[in-house]
Amino acid sequence: VVLLSPFGFSPTGEAFNLTMEDVATCTAIALQADKLLFLTEVPGIHEVQGDPESAIDTELALADAKRMLAALPSPTRPRDTAFYLQHCVRACEGGVERSHILSFAVDGALLTEVYTHDGIGTMVVDEKLESLREAGADDIGGILQLIEPFERDGTLVKRDRTEIERDIGHYTVIEHDGVIFGCAALYPYPEAQTGEMAALTVSHNVQGQGDGERILKRIEQRARTSGLASIFVLTTRTMHWFIKRGFVVADADWLPEARKRKYNWDRRSHVLVKHLK
């Protein structure tokens, strides 16, 4: 374990008493660390600013964190929302892949944050490193290759190339080194203020690392931006995964009329709905 002193010295020998947050942030940037973790007095960033009873936002894209920081007053004490957030943003801008805010009052906070999907604090992540983005025409082949094994075993409904080419603007993908290893599509039904998340897929090679969660969050962001109040999925095999992430079971009659007409009653897919805050 390396302990770093908060004291710094100028070239002329003048001493400076630095804050531990500045020392940690500068060190993480200099090392190009994978993670910077702040064990703090606060549990993280609340989803609803000013409401300490609201849920903790477990993942903030760097762009969203910067917009939030710009709208917040300058921090004067550690419990101010912007206090640790400013250091997380600075670290990510300096090349640190992820920075975390979590409470030191929770037993096992560090292990829970690092080794579980949702964690317990807020993680600020530079999406450029995650390559989480909206899909384009160049991604069609990668999406087809990704979903093919899941179509073959019946997890996903078969989609041909023409359908994906037509709907490519609805897709969100995760790419790494030019390879698409996660995707999902959002089909809006604005007349019912809802949208269908379809074809949520993560490659077998990287499952269990939280990428499905990141895609879901991006789809939720796209839905909110489009003015939708909820999203829904149709699934036959992964019902438990969605329920753990805030979806509730609904009857097929709940579906928008346009989607109900296309519902495959023989497949008997479960309808799961998540209302967006």
Written account of the structure:
The protein is an alpha+beta fold and 277 residues long. It folds into two domains: 7-129, 3-Layer(aba) Sandwich (Carbamate kinase), CATH 3.40.1160.10; 132-275, 3-Layer(aba) Sandwich (Aminopeptidase). Helix content is 32%, strand content 25%. The strands form three sheets. The protein has a seven-stranded mixed beta sheet with strand order 7-8-9-10-11-13-12. The longest helix has 15 residues, at 211-225. The protein starts with 6 loop residues before the first strand and ends with a strand. The model has no long low-confidence stretch (mean pLDDT 91).
Structural class: alpha+beta
Tell me the β content.
15-25%
Number of strands: 13
As a percent range, the share of helical residues equals: 25-40%
Topology:
Elements: E1 7-9, E2 15-17, H1 20-31, E3 35-40, E4 59-61, H2 62-71, H3 81-93, E5 98-103, H4 109-115, E6 122-125, H5 127-130, E7 132-134, H6 140-152, H7 161-167, E8 171-176, E9 179-189, E10 194-202, H8 211-225, E11 230-235, H9 239-243, E12 248-250, H10 257-260, E13 270-275
Parallel strand pairs: 3-5, 4-6, 10-11
Antiparallel strand pairs: 1-2, 5-6, 7-8, 8-9, 9-10, 11-13, 12-13
Helix pairs in contact: 1-3, 2-3
Short description:
This protein is α+β, with helices and mostly antiparallel strands and 277 residues long.
What labels describe this entry?
277 residues; alpha+beta; Carbamate kinase; Aminopeptidase; 2 domains; seven-stranded mixed sheet; 10 helices; 13 strands; elongated
